[in-house]
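Appendix B. One record, verbatim.
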Amino acid sequence: CDKGRWAFQYATVGDRITTPLLREDDGTMRPASWSEALAVAGAGLAAASGRSGVLVGGRTTVEEAYAYAKFARIVLGTNDIDFR
């Protein structure tokens, strides 16, 4: 919707998360550095390589669809992409 796409008030809200959080084995979240969070995210994406697909909503722009498809092919290593 227009509000979700163009309303950026959320970026200045006081209770916004400003530090990466990592989930511990017991389910709790703890603050982490950006380098640690990106390393964990990268390891998770690498572990899912070739075993995942991407489902994108049908209301994305052509540019967004292109970016999702490129991410799926290059980062996730999959051609399983659906834009419906």
